[in-house]
Amino acid sequence: MPKPSISTTLIALLLASVLLRTLAAQTPPAPSKSVDGIKVDKWNSLPLHGIDYRGVQSAPAPKRDLSGIWDATGDRVNGSPPGIQFSGANEHRSVLPGNNAPRGGQRDEKNIPNPLPYTSLGETTLESHKPTGQGVRAVPSGQGNDPVNICDPPGFPRMEFSEFRNLEIEQLPDHVLILNQNYRTWRTVWTDGRELPADPEPRWYGYSVGKWLDDYTFVIQTVGLNDKTWLDNQGRPHSSDLKVEERFHRIDSDHMELTVTIDDPKMYAQPWQGLKNFPLRRQPKGFDIREIYCSPSDLAEYREDVGDEAPPDK
Amino acid sequence: MRSKLVLTLLLIVGLLSASRPVLAHHGAASFENGKSVTIEGTVTEFIWTNPHVHLKVDAKDENGSVQHWVFEAQSIVNQANAGWTKNMFKPGDHVLIDATPAKGGRLVGLFRGHIVINGKEFKRLEEAP
Hints:
Helix content of chain B: 10-25%
Largest sheet of chain A: 9 strands, mixed, barrel
Distance between the termini of chain B: 22 Å
CATH class of chain B: Mainly Beta
Oligomer: heterodimer
CATH superfamily of chain B: Nucleic acid-binding proteins
Radius of gyration of chain B: 14 Å
Low-confidence stretches of chain A: 75-84, 86-104, 310-314
Strand order of the largest sheet of chain B: 1-2-3-5-4
Mean pLDDT of chain B: 81
Mean pLDDT of chain A: 82
Distance between the termini of chain A: 91 Å
Number of strands of chain B: 6
Number of helices of chain B: 2
CATH architecture of chain B: Beta Barrel
Structural class of chain B: alpha+beta
Largest interface: A-B, 49 and 38 residues
Strand content of chain B: 25-35%
Low-confidence stretches of chain B: 1-24
Number of domains of chain A: 1
Shape of chain B: globular
Order of helices and strands of chain A: HEHHEEEEEEEEH
C-alpha cells in the first residue's frame, strides 16, 4: 500500500476538521418545556432572557385572560417608530446594544424619517423639555428639566414608552388591575361598563375603561392625564386632552403584543402609534418583582455623592 | 486561539454594553464620551440604591496625593440584571476600574465595564443573543 503524501494527509485532516465542526454546529433541538418550569430566583427574580424561551412549548391563548407578569424581556423592538423606545424597553440588557443607537438625528426632530405630526404648540412644548438621558436632545444633567429627575411619577403612558418594566395584570370581576414595577404604581381599568369621566381632575395615571374586542384582544381607553408628565424619556409632550388607546393582544399562553395610540390634537395633528405590536413575554409562576422607587432621600444622597452641576431648570 | 476569540468577544460585548442608556439623571451629555480613564484604588463606600448605584474609591494621583473618585452605574435593577449584587464591593477592596470621565474635570466616572476586584476580573452575566 502506497504511503499517503503529506498533502493528501493535510487535505484529509482538513476535511475531517470541517466535518467535525459541521456536526458540532448542529445542536439537537431543545426538548419542549414550559415557561413555568424555568427556575428563577425566589426573591428579586431576574426577568428571563430571550434565550430562556428557546424550546418553550406555548399553549394556546386562554380566552379573555391577560393575567400574569409580563415583561418586554428579550425581544428586539421591530416596527416601532424611530426614537420612541430607544431609551425605553431597549434599555433592557437582553436587547442587543445596537438597537440603542440614538435615533432621530435632529434636536428639533425636523427633517428626520417618519417625524411625528407636531402642531406648533407641540413643537414649542418639545423645545421647552430638556431631557438628560441619551439621544440627540439630551443636555447635561444640570441643565435638564425631566420631571422624573426630581422624583415626579413617570405617569402614563411614559411607563410604557420608556423604561418598560414588569407589569403584573390581575383580572377581577368588574375591573382589571395593572401593577407596575416601576415606582410600584397601579392602574385600575374598569370593565363594569362605566363611561370615561367627562371633565376629570387630572391624574398622573389617568382614568381607564376597558373591554374585550374579541376573545384575545383587550382594549383600554385612558383620559384625564396630568400634563406635567412627558410621553417618554426624550421629552415628547402631551396635553391634558390626551386620549390613549392600548390594545393588548394575547398570542398564546406566553406571548402578548401591545399597541399604544396617542390622540392629542393640541400637540399632534394626527393620532400616532407609540408602540406597535410591541412584544411581551410572560414570566414564570412564582416570579418575585424587585421594587423600583424614586426616593427623595436616595436622590439627595446620589446628588451629594455624584454631584449635579446645577439644580434642574423649571 | 479560542480563548483569545472569547476574550475579544467579551471585550466587544463589554464596550457595547457600556454604551447603553443610563437613567435620565446623568446622561451622555454629562460625560466625555469616547474618553476612558483607568483608576486603581481602595473602596471606601458602595452605595446600592436608586437612582444610580455608585462606588467611592480613594486613589492616588501621580504626586501621591489621595483623590476621592465616585463611579456611577445604573439603577439597582439594571445592575442586578448585569450580575451585580449589594455585596459586590466592600470597603477596603483594592479595585481597578475603567470609566468614562465626567465633563469639567470632576472626579466622577461612568463604569465602562472592565472591573478588577482584589486582583480578580469581574465578569458580567452573559448577554443574551
